[in-house]
Design a protein that fits this description.
The protein is an alpha+beta fold and 203 residues long. It has helices at residues 16-30, 36-51, 78-81, 92-98, 117-123, 155-202; strands spanning 3-4, 55-62, 67-74, 86-87, 103-105, 127-135, 138-147, 151-152.
Length: 203
């Protein structure tokens, strides 16, 4: 389980029981809404609380320009969020994650893969764990957790966040499908009402 540096007064390591309970709670939360914005926000809040980390950010891949668009965040300041876009081509962390590999950054200040070191230092970010959001084997984005102290992410933590990410990706796809169906329904109803109105007026 996740442990912090011996010199830092971080939270105690999570147990299997803690993670099972947190996973159950997160699954309930993710499925409680079909509104995309609500789903996204519930994912980052639940993940931050479940893993007892400083913050969590979720970015969805825009296939048109190859950029990861920040879609939801919890625990990070507006100053840090305005640091700039994440171009996948210039972000080894996200490139690795989008290929299906979890990425651990023990110290963002010394890891060459991390894009915005100065902004992270000002924000108080030390360690990062990043995993892909995948649906049917295809990456649709990434989810990152951030800690404010040196942290050793272990296999339990990686597996827990990966399972959370799988649940989150399905919830996101369901919400997108719902929105798409709702738009289609609204369009059909508008067309029907328009046709009905024209018919009434022509009589």
């Amino acid at each position: 389980t996740m442990t912090t540096d011996a010199n830092s007064a971080g939270p105690p390591a999570r147990t299997h029981k803690d993670y099972y309970k947190a996973l159950y709670q997160a699954a309930l939360t993710f499925s409680s809404s079909l509104e995309l914005d609500s789903v996204l926000q519930s994912i980052v809040m639940s993940t931050t609380e479940a893993m007892e980390v400083k913050a969590c950010g979720l970015r969805l891949l825009d296939p048109r320009n190859g950029e990861l668009q920040l879609s939801a965040v919890y625990g990070l300041s507006s100053d840090y969020l305005s640091k700039g876009p994440v171009d996948v081509g210039h972000s080894p962390i996200d490139m690795e994650a989008l290929c299906g590999t979890p990425v651990i950054i023990p110290d963002v200040s010394t890891d060459t893969r991390f894009q915005y070191k100065e902004a992270a230092k000002r924000e108080g970010i030390v360690s990062v764990l990043c995993v892909p959001l995948e649906v049917h084997g295809e990456a649709i984005g990434v989810i990152r957790v951030y800690t404010g102290e040196p942290c050793a992410f272990h296999e339990d933590d990686i597996q827990f966040l990966s399972v959370l990410a799988s649940l989150a990706a399905l919830a996101i796809e369901n919400a997108k499908l719902y929105e798409s169906l709702k738009r289609s329904y609204d369009g059909v109803m508008d067309a029907l009402w328009g046709t009905s109105l024209q018919y009434t007026e022509s009589r």
